[in-house]
Amino acid sequence: MAENLQGREVVIGVTGGIAAYKTATVVSRLVQASAGVTVVMTEAATQLVAPKTFEALSRRPVALGMWDTLTHPHIELAQDADLLCVAPATANFIAKAALGLADDLLSTLVLAFTGPILIAPAMNTAMWQKPVVQRNIQQLRQDGVEIIEPETGYLSCGMVGAGRMAEPERIFARIVEILTNLPPKAKK
User: Fold this and answer.
1) Arithmetic mean of pLDDT over the chain
2) Each residue of 140-188: pLDDT tens digit?
3) Known catalytic residues?
4) For residue 63, what are the contacts with CB-CB under 8 A and spacing of at least 6?
């Protein structure tokens, strides 16, 4: 079944987890479904996947910092997007989001965004199981953020366990489901 997301705007946040390469598939699928996609990368994410990859897939510039091309990127991106998805979401990013810390474009965008937020955690099993990480996840859920649970499997560190980012098709399917049930944003 071909999804049609024509007229929908999605911001994809990419943090510095090795699973960042899988996010390229999510972006590609969204563009193929006719969604407008803007990618926001943390500095750490750019060490794992080149911004040019996401620019090629989204056909838009990647937002990297607070002082890029937009005057107030965290506000403008928040106003224009129907949904914000962060994949992968590292333990560091999850902690910042749970505490409301805003020290880069992506964490500031999370604070400014009023629509649905979807987070796909990805980290080592020991990190995922830490009580502080689970408390942060619980706080985000209480704040209305949806968490796509990580999967169990082989991790880049060589371990096998929970912490593997959800597969791109699972993330894409959930985005489609949310957008299908969400009234379109009024355009400026």
Assistant:
1) 91
2) 999 999 999 998 887 787 777 788 999 999 999 999 999 999 887 766 5
3) 157
4) 38, 39, 40, 41, 70, 73, 77, 105
CA distance to 16, 158, 175, per residue, from 129 (Å): 19, 17, 26
- pTM listed for this prediction: 0.92
The C-alpha atoms of residue 115 and residue 9 are separated, in whole angstroms, by 11
